[in-house]
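tool_call: predict_structure(chain=1)
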Amino acid sequence: MVGSLAIVFAAISGCKSISASQPSTHRELSAQTLALEINNVPEEFSETYSRRLGFNRYTKVTAPNGKAIHLIAQDKLSDNQIIRARSVLEHYLMPYPGSEYGADKTAVANRMAENNAILLLLNGRDDGTNRAAELDGQPLYQDEIQVEGHQWYIEQNYDHRDATFEEILHLVHDTGIGVDQYESFMGVLPAYQAEIRNAQVSALAAGTWGIGSENQDWIEELRDENSLSQEYLASVVDSYYGLWGAWTDSKTYGMWGVYIAKTRDEIMSEDNLGAQLMRDKFFHPYLTYNARIDDSFSGDFSLRFDQNKPYTHHSQYLKDITLTGNNDVNVIVNQLDNHITGNSGKNSVIFTGDTSQYHISSNQDGKVVISDLVDGRDGVNTLSHVELAEFKDKIVSL
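tool_result:
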C-alpha cells in the first residue's frame, strides 16, 4: 500500500429525523470515545445494525480507494476492545516492505472495501444466543478480545481465548487475499492463496494440522464449506504471533490441539510449508500497531519474553505501546525499536545494561531517545511522558 492506511473519523452529517419504526443508534458518546475515532453507527447502517440489537458504536479503516472497511460494535464491548480490533486489522493491511505479496497492500485493502467487508464486534461469546450473528459480517465476540494489559491477557486466560487475530484474518483472507475453489475469486492474491492451499493440503495429509480423530467431523464441515485453507492459515498465524505459547493443555500442539506448532520456532521446525507462508510473504515478523495497555494494569509490563510471564509469548512481538489510565506502570523493553508513551501515573522504562552502554538524547518535540550501544539487545527506544529510565547500575530521571 502506498503510504499507510488512514483511520477516518466516522462523522455523521445532516442527521435526518427517524421515525419510531426505524431504529436509530444515535446517542451521546463521550469526548474520550470520540477522540479515539469511534462514533455512532452511521445512518446508512443503523436500520440493520440497530440500537435494538445492541449496536451503538462504529469505526472504520479507509482503503486507498477512499472506501471503508467497517467495524460495527455492540454496547458491551469496551472502547479499548474496539481499538484492539481496528489495530489488528490495520496491522494485517500495513505494507511489509521487501515481502513478496505484502510490499504494497493497496489492492488487498481496496478489494476488501469493494467487497463491503464488515467486522461485527458482538456482545458475549459465540454460544448461539446473539441474534446479530446472523447479520452480514465477520463476527468477533467480546469475550474473545484480549486487550493488552487486561487480566485476561496477563493471565492468558483461554476461557477468554484471544480470537482477534483469527477472526480478523478470516475477514482479510475471504474478502481481500481471496479463496480458491469458488465459482469466482473474490480476492487479489491468487498466487499467495495457491501457496496457502498447497501448505494446507500438505499439512492435512501429513497430520500436522487437523490433528485428532475427534476433529475429523469438523474437518469435513470445513471441507464442505470450503474453509480448510482459511482455518489452516489462522492456526499458523496464531502460533506465529505467540497466541498459543502459554496454552497448557498440550505441551506441543496449538489452536486447541489441531496444529502441530504452538510457537514460531515450532512452526519453523515442524511445518516447513507453513513457515514459508510466514517468511517474507505477507505477514510482518512483529506487531505493527501501537498497543494501548489497559488502564487496569499496574506494575511491570514486559516486552521481552519471560517464561514466568505467560503473556510475553505474545507481547515479545509488540513494538509500540501506549499506557492508559493513571496507574504506575514500568515497561521492560525488548530488542525492537520501541516507541513507549506513558500515562498519567508514574512510569519508568527498564533496560538491560549499565548507563554507559546507552546513548541518551532528546528530540525537538521533547521525546527522549535511548539507544543501546550493544547490538541486538535493547534497540532504540523513543519515550514520551515517561519519568524514569532504569538501568542496571542506576535510575535516571528524564
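agent: The first strand starts at residue 6 and ends at 7. Proceeding to next step.
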